[in-house]
Amino acid sequence: MGGAWAWAMVAAMAATPVVAATAAAPGPRVVSPLVKVRPGEAVQGRRDARLSVARGECEATQVVLPAHAARPKVGALSLAGPGAALKVSVWRQVFVDVKTPSNGEGRTGPWPDALVPVEAPIQSADAKLPTVLYVEVCAPEKQAPGTYKGELRVKTEGEAPAPVPFTVEVQPFALPATSSLPTSFGVSLYSIARGHGVSPESPEAKELLRAYGRVLLEHRVSAHGMSMSPPPVRFDGGRPVVDWRAYDAEMGPFLDGSLLPSGARFTTAEVRDNKQASTDAEKAAYYRAFVEHFRKKGWPAQLFFYAKDEPKPEDVPLVHAQAKRVRAAGGIPVLVTSPLDDALRGAADILTPTLNCFYPRPGPQTCRNVVAARTLRGRLPKGAKVWWYQSCNSHGCNGGPPEDAAVDAAYSGWASYMVDHPAPLNRAMGVLAFSSGVDGELYFDTVFAYNTKKDVWTDVFEFGGNGDGTLFYPGTPARLGTPGHQPVISLRLKHLRDGLEDYEYLRLLTELGEGDFAQAAARRLARSGWDITRDAGEWEAVRQEVTARLRKRWAGSEYAKRSGRQTPDSTP
């Protein structure tokens, strides 16, 4: 399961020293990424890093520097072992000053989130905050299993370089490059251009769009929106003549596996309406052209049509009309974001309620029709899929703790992508997707705050939550001290990725004959969408047990034979 998981014994981890994030500790300390390091709060740390990583997976840990550390410099780190050296990426964490908590679970003050280059200028507001490095190791799918070692050397002003030993165990089993769980997260060229202060028509903006899409794909996430431009079409005797050149240039690398060395692809692609197709017949013909084009290209991504978002009662006729037109084309599922609703019966091929609509809980209700995923699927037409998505219902839509404690409790504890919520809540969607059996995840945006006039670096409060709809920060040259613009990743996107890797671990274990064990492991971490283990030690213990089962089952399996990397069963 994803994240920086020590493969050492949990008991050894429990014996590691407690370090205050602002205390003048004698040297760097390694801290689990499932802990958000905040000023003044004590965290458990150790002097060395011990990670376990599957082939095709990324793992990370945090290195907390002494409070007096200033202008850190990190030497290049590669890890030597039985195969090619493992490369390591290092970022410095930047804090967001939360002024209004997302709910009673959040708190005001600095929270770590943005991951910037280590050498990026330190802002005056960050000078007295903890210096925390995020250190990530990625093992390619063809990496030789075994033990890899090296030292991270950190130099700060007035101090000798401080070595942090790293030991990484590359496991024999491999995760697929493309996510097994379909996803579709929003991103927009126009939002990106606005956030970076460039023209959306500029080549720079288009390069940035590809960079944002690439980062999402590197984190196992597929995107919808992108340039927001449907392929141009004209009609010749009712036959659509579509100009695919711009669409293929933009989307082709994400759909054919050529963008990343791993061959990862987007799992989904949305079909957008085009104003040049005005009649129902023209719209259906235009949709049909998408199906045919994807077939000719050999793109396996699941096409879908995103119907009217969160339809109100007055929108129901529109959703049914959209579904009728799309189905006339054939081959494109209609996605509807709604709880189970008799008024929308038959409209959705992919019914997508919010997370809250799957898990009953006592107290005030945050969904008008709560139905478990497997029960929900039984109430839908044969072949219909069930996705879900997070909304402000995962934290409360007004921001700040409600005066009514029962209402605050109803909106607390849910899996959440908010900055001021614990890391396990940011990560839990993958485990929940596995245990619930949902077919995919939707999320409305990843750069929403770029559209606002405020400084995203100091305020990502939207829809009652800190970070709702925003998983990036605009990396401008002025902010980063770099020659060009680049997307800045959030800690929350890393946790989200780790959750999708959790899903792959549990799915693979199930396919290797350990389905009951995988379900039990998932339930130890997340008993429901609002009852999630916060204890990093428990997550680590489950990780070790799942890894040990996978090693044992992998040896001699058809997966191992196909990968050409059978190894004897052993534990690190």
What do you see in this structure?
The protein has 572 residues and is α/β, with parallel strands linked by helices. It has 2 domains: 10-175, Sandwich (Immunoglobulin-like); 183-490, TIM Barrel (Alpha-Beta Barrel), CATH 3.20.20. Strands 2, 5, 7, 8, 9, 10, 25 and 26 form an 8-stranded antiparallel β-sheet that branches. The chain has an 8-stranded parallel β-sheet with strand order 14-13-22-21-20-19-18-17. The chain has a 4-stranded mixed β-sheet with strand order 4-12-11-6. Strand 17 (268-270), helix 5 and strand 18 (302-306) form a beta-alpha-beta unit. Helix 2 (189-196) packs across helix 3 (203-218), helix 12 packs parallel to helix 14 and helix 13 (515-525) runs antiparallel to helix 14 (536-554). Mean pLDDT is 92; it is low at 3-15 and 565-572.
How many individual β-strands?
A: 28
Question: What is the highest CATH level, the class of the largest domain?
Answer: Alpha Beta
Provide the domain count. 2
Structural class: alpha/beta
Per DSSP, the total helix count is: 15
Might you state the CATH topology name of the largest domain? TIM Barrel
Average pLDDT, all residues: 92
Q: Which CATH architecture of the largest domain?
A: Alpha-Beta Barrel
- Report the span from N to C terminus: 16 Å
From the alpha carbons, calculate the radius of gyration and give it in angstroms: 24 Å
The quaternary state of the protein chains shown equals single chain
Strand content: 15-25%
Q: Strand count, sense and closure of the main sheet?
A: 8 strands, antiparallel
The percent of residues in helical segments reads 25-40%
